[in-house]
Design a protein that fits this description.
Rossmann fold, eight-stranded mixed beta sheet, 10 helices
């Protein structure tokens, strides 16, 4: 779990699927960081153009197809149960960042979660050719602005990033850094379970050292559970 501080200078356009509070919150921070930002909802871009002009001035309302074709990084910020509406072909080969969480009251029963160690792996099973990372799910949309700090600030908050794709991981770490947070490499995509709802990381706020410690504690606990479930020969 090594921290990567350099962002990919080729990343200039952020595309966000979802025009709700999380999506527009990410958009505002991305605009401050100097990115070009496209936002799409499920319908005609004209239907969200006014909302976008108010909630994320400077972002462009776009179609989902335009987001997927033009963005260097596609951010998923729709309610988790809508992952089934994501276009596997459109996201194939794309760098994608999953910010979604499972909430029973909002998402209802999702039996697919029983088949995957983490919600991001469930999403990845639907879009298997996407180059998927997970982050920004363990911070409130309002905290994205309130808690952002310049690099080197003593009270800078840390956020974890996981991915099975090295290039996507580096890109997502750099994106989180530019939003105003210390980005911590959390390892494989499955390790995203360490910061899903109900975990200490999800409910807390940590600096880099504290977050790394929590990630290691989760990894040790997961390894212990796996060992306990292993058959005795």
């Amino acid at each position: 779990m090594n921290q990567i501080l350099q962002h990919d200078p080729a990343t200039t356009t952020i595309g966000i699927l979802g025009a709700g509070k999380v999506g527009t919150g990410v958009a505002r921070q991305a605009l401050k960081a100097g990115y070009r930002v496209l936002i799409a909802a499920s319908g005609d871009p004209k239907d969200i153009s006014l909302i976008i002009s108010v909630m994320a001035p400077g972002a462009v309302a776009a179609s989902a197809a335009d987001v997927m074709s033009e963005a260097d990084l596609v951010v998923l910020s729709v309610p988790l149960h809508k992952f089934r509406t994501l276009d596997p072909a459109g996201l194939a080969g794309k760098h994608v960042l999953d910010t979604m969480n499972y909430w029973r009251d909002t998402n209802g029963d999702m039996p697919e979660l029983d088949e995957a160690p983490s919600s991001s792996e469930m999403v990845h099973a639907h879009i298997p050719e996407a180059r998927l990372a997970k982050s920004l799910n363990h911070i409130g949309y309002h905290e994205l602005e309130l808690d952002a700090r310049p690099a080197g600030a003593p009270d800078r908050r840390a956020l974890a990033v996981t991915s099975d794709d090295a290039e996507t991981l580096a890109l997502a770490l750099g994106f989180v850094e530019r939003l105003g947070f210390d980005a911590v490499d959390g390892g494989r995509l499955s390790n995203g379970a360490a910061f899903e709802p109900g975990t200490p990381i999800f409910t807390g706020s940590y600096d880099q050292a504290g977050l790394q410690s929590e990630l290691l504690a989760h990894a040790a606990s997961a390894a212990g559970e796996e060992l306990a479930l292993s058959p005795v020969h």
